[in-house]
TrEMBL record:
Listed GO biological process terms: regulation of DNA-templated transcription
Pfam family, one: RHH_1
Entries under InterPro entries matching the protein: Arc_rbn_hlx_hlx, CopG, Non-func_TypeII_TA_Antitoxin, Ribbon_hlx_hlx
Protein name: Predicted transcriptional regulator
Ribbon-helix-helix protein CopG domain mapped to chain residues: 7-47
Length: 89
């Protein structure tokens, strides 16, 4: 069974945001708390993914796994020509 312990959090939000939350809760027939938990979970997942991808990108840079800017620019410039270059690797 999942841990059912909870903690009450309080946040001041603009009235317009609270009104949107109330409308969404009514439309979905869900509580404000349920919607806020869904939103917070999605945001935290997004931020964790962003952090992971940033660490991976920095690791690539540290390991020299980068593409030269001039090579990318030449490729982009070639896309509007009759003979585009292959994507740099």
């Amino acid at each position: 069974m999942a841990n059912s312990a909870t903690k009450v959090l309080t946040a001041h939000v603009p009235l317009s945001l609270a009104e949107k939350l109330d409308l969404m809760a009514e439309r979905l027939e869900r509580s404000r708390g349920w919607i806020m938990k869904q939103a917070l979970t999605a945001w935290l997942d997004q931020e964790e993914k962003r952090e992971r991808l940033t660490r991976e990108a920095l690791s690539d840079v540290d390991n020299g796994n980068v593409i030269d800017h001039q090579a990318v620019q030449a490729w982009v410039d070639s896309l509007s020509t009759d003979d585009p270059l292959p994507a740099p690797r």
